[in-house]
Amino acid sequence: MTWNALIRALAYDNVPLRAVARDSGVISSDDIVSPIGVYADCGSKGDKPSRGRGPRHVHRLRAPNGSTTELQINSKMRTFRLGKPGSLQAGPNYECVSTTRWEPNFVDTVRRYVKE
Question: What's the rounded Cα separation, in Å, for the pair 30 and 21?
Fold first, then answer.
């Protein structure tokens, strides 16, 4: 039930899957290009926050725990284009941290599908 809800929630968010291992409970996505600042904070240059686009890679781990299922989401993002929209330039790769916007929305979608 939870496994099917996870797959449906990923499809709902158009997440391209790289690996799905039901026996170990691991799902891994391909890179998803998204705007910096929406799902990840990549720091700033001086007093200006970093802007641009970067690939985001998401791993989900599912672990049964008796009658419940624990869900762990690990996501990574780095920059590859910096600048304002329309004038993006290749830049150094900076590691970014999650803004914790995507993860709770994803979990809510999974919960909704589990109830169906």
Answer: 15
Q: Crossing angle for the helix pair 102-115 and 2-12, nearest 10 degrees? A: 130
pTM for this predicted structure: 0.70
Query: Would you state the structure tokens that stand for residue 33, as one six-digit string?
Result: 């290009």
Which residue, 2, 30, 4, is CA-closest to 15?
A: 30
Q: What is the pLDDT of residues 69-87, one digit of tens each?
A: 778 887 777 776 656 666 6
45/92 Cα distance (integer angstroms)? 12
Cβ–Cβ under 8 Å, residues 4 and 113: yes
CA 85 to chain centre: 22
Dihedrals phi, psi of 72, to nearest 5 degrees: -120, 130
Tokens of 20: 């799905």
DSSP H helical segments within 1-116, as ranges? 2-12, 102-115
Strand bridging mode 26-29 / 52-65: antiparallel
Residue 5, SS3? helix
